Every structure is written in structure tokens, then in C-alpha cells.
Amino acid sequence: MKYTKEHEWLRVEGDLVVVGITEHAATALGDVVFVELPEVETVVAEGDEVAVIESVKAASDILAPTAGEIVAVNDLLVDNPGLVNEDPLGAAWFFKMRLDDLSVLDDFLDEDEYNELIA
Question: Counting Cβ atoms within 10 Å, is residue 18 exposed (0-12), middle (13-18) or buried (19+)?
Fold first, then answer.
């Protein structure tokens, strides 16, 4: 698994990258009450706002960690946004992307580097 400085996690599944937010981010947000997901087949550039997450404390944008195409979204989050607090690293993924080149993931933080960032 890889991580961004914006507290997103990236997990490779075959030729896709699954994107979610870290436990640290979910805890900082507090109780999540709303999630808006991107449209499937949307092509995004790195840094594009692709999803919105709202909690009792704040609203935050989920940014595209890299350029690619959104190929799936987790509709469970729309009906049950609290899943983000319950299982941020598993069932609460936000979207899956297809990248032109998976080697761009080498530029992201590994688990130790991410843990140093949040320490």
C-alpha cells in the first residue's frame, strides 16, 4: 500500500489502483455523514477534486492522487457514509482508477514514511 501527504491510501489490484482515506484522516474528520463520489469513466488529472466527504466537523475534497480514469466507485458509501469511520482501510474505499503507468506509484509514501508524516 502507498500513501499520499493528503492522507489517502493507494492499493494496487491487478491493473487498477483503489483509493481511500487513511485511518488518521477518518479519525481527524470525526463522524462522516455524507460522501459524494465521481462518475465512472471520468478522466482526471493529478490533483483534480474527485470526491467530497463531509463530517460533523468539516467538509473535505478527495483529490486524484495521479492522472487516470475512474473505473468504479463504492456506492456503499453513499448509503452508509459512516463506513469511512468503521473500516477506512478496507470496505470504505472511494474509487478505483486505471492508470497509464503504475510505476508512478513509486513516488508515493510507503507505510513507514507515512507513519513518520503523522507522528
Answer: middle
Domains and CATH numbers, the chain: 2-101 (2.40.50.100)
Q: Which residue has the cell 467538509?
A: 59
The runs of H, that is alpha helices, within the chain are 23-29, 76-79, 83-86, 111-118
Q: What pTM value is reported for the model?
A: 0.94
pLDDT at residue 114, rounded to an integer: 97
Q: Give mean pLDDT, residues 24-31.
A: 94
The total number of residues shown for the chain amounts to 119
Q: Is 100's pLDDT higher than 90?
A: no
Classify residue 43 as left (phi > 0), alpha (psi -120 to 50) or beta: beta
Query: Which residues lie across from 20 on neighbouring strands?
Result: 9
- Region 66-72: mean pLDDT is 97
Q: Residue 59's closest CA among 69, 68, 49?
A: 49
Handedness of CA 82, 52, 8, 70 (dihedral sign): positive
